[in-house]
Amino acid sequence: MKTKNQHKRGFVALVSALIISAVLMSIVIGAGAAGWDARLDALGSESKRVALSLAESCAMVALTALATSTDPTHLAITDQSVHVGTDSRGTPLTCVITSIAHNGNDATISTRASFNNSYSAIEVVASVFDMTSAPVPPGRDAIEVKSWRIVRP
After folding, report:
1. Contact between 79 and 98 (Cβ < 8 Å)
2. What is the value of pTM for the model shown?
3. Is the pLDDT of residue 120 over 80?
């Protein structure tokens, strides 16, 4: 015949096993969630890097347009979408030249791009030498970049 003490020992063992199982399950779930969060953070960083590269591509396209224009001080572009290529899934990669504004010989280029809900914007200030008025002096480029910075999209 079982005594009252033997029933208590079985109950204590059962409750201890349940508590230990719950603690171990929470540790395993927490570690799995941390790994998932790290994966999503890495994916977000990669998307931000691609968006920044796309915005930089548009800035280079705008600088090229200024360098090859016959009248660069009057070249004005607003919200022009530029096709850069396609990603591995065949989705088109584009960026937007938001504006090219002129202040004397200085041109301010603003661009933006997005990729997988990550956004980047670039602002470039360049000094543009008007080649229609005179040839470029020796040792001077047609365009000199004064600043290149990332801005809030």
Report:
1. yes
2. 0.69
3. yes
